[in-house]
Amino acid sequence: MSETGRIAAWSLVVGVAVLGIKTFAWWLTGSVALLSDALESVVNIATAFAALMAVRIAARPPDATHPYGHHKAEFFSAVLEGVLIVVAALFILEEAWQGFRTPPEINAPWTGIAVNLVAAGLNAAWAAVLIRQGRRLRSPALRADGAHLRADVVTSAGVAIGVAAAVLTGWTWLDPALAALVAVHVLWSGWKVLSASVSGLMDESIPEPDLASLREIISESAEGAVEAHDLRTRHAGSATFVEFHLVVPGDMTVETAHRICDRVEASLKSAVPECTVTIHVEPEHKAKHTGIVVL
């Protein structure tokens, strides 16, 4: 199993542990807000499983039916995660509504809050690992999972404060009100995950700072060529696809032009891991004088 797959598998283990802890906190107290926090952890387990499946599929090499690889499987996982987050928010809203109609009595609140904060601490630590490793391994699925867990930590902290306020003031309506706020927060988190994932499925270009770096690499490594233009990029999971037109002198031999292309490709792959480069060579009269000037 790949390193990304192992991290995704550990997310399942962490998710089950956190769900058990939060469910125990709800069982102790009967709090609707703590129940809403536990319900979100059910989604954490489902999304961790989806992420695990996605990274395993994404790791498969290209084949006859998928010549560009399977990298986009991670974006589908992140989209599924966003949908599940939204579904969880709707369940939480339903529980909040029932709590407004019949405010529950909160038992053993301080013990329940302490237990819930233990789960929040575990989530916080694992979210930091997922986001850091997701960036290092260029995995959208791990980053989305980490972002969701980080949002869950904020939710848990808010729930703890709200339950404490409900107990101290005697205002029982605070408990379901807080559950409703949790649902709104979860909805916003789901929307952010969905929007980020859809951009990847739509073949969005890499960020402008990275594009500027690619232009500089091409300019410095394409010595012997005239210019490069029509640079296009897209990212799919951990893979980056780069293509452009390279203009060379009309009397240059094919072998010499090929050596330049090899040099440029090697430089790009050295700077960008898992980079696939496609270069279309053109004669000098095809120059547009608007692209990348070769140094």
From TrEMBL:
Positions of the Cation efflux protein cytoplasmic domain: 207-284
Alphabetical list of Pfam families matching this protein: Cation_efflux, ZT_dimer
Gene3D superfamilies, sorted: Cation efflux protein transmembrane domain, Cation efflux protein, cytoplasmic domain
Record-level Gene Ontology MF annotations: cadmium ion transmembrane transporter activity; ferrous iron transmembrane transporter activity; zinc efflux antiporter activity
Compartments in which it is found: Cell membrane
Gene Ontology biological-process annotations: intracellular zinc ion homeostasis
Keywords for the protein's UniProt record, in alphabetical order: Cell membrane, Membrane, Transmembrane, Transmembrane helix, Transport
Superkingdom classification of source: Bacteria
Domain Cation efflux protein transmembrane: start-end pairs: 11-202
Alphabetical list of InterPro entries matching this protein: Cation_efflux, Cation_efflux_CTD, Cation_efflux_CTD_sf, Cation_efflux_TM, Cation_efflux_TMD_sf, CDF_Transporter
Membrane-protein topology: Multi-pass membrane protein
Similarity-based family: Belongs to the cation diffusion facilitator (CDF) transporter (TC 2.A.4) family.
Protein name per its UniProtKB record: Protein p34
Organism: Roseivivax isoporae LMG 25204
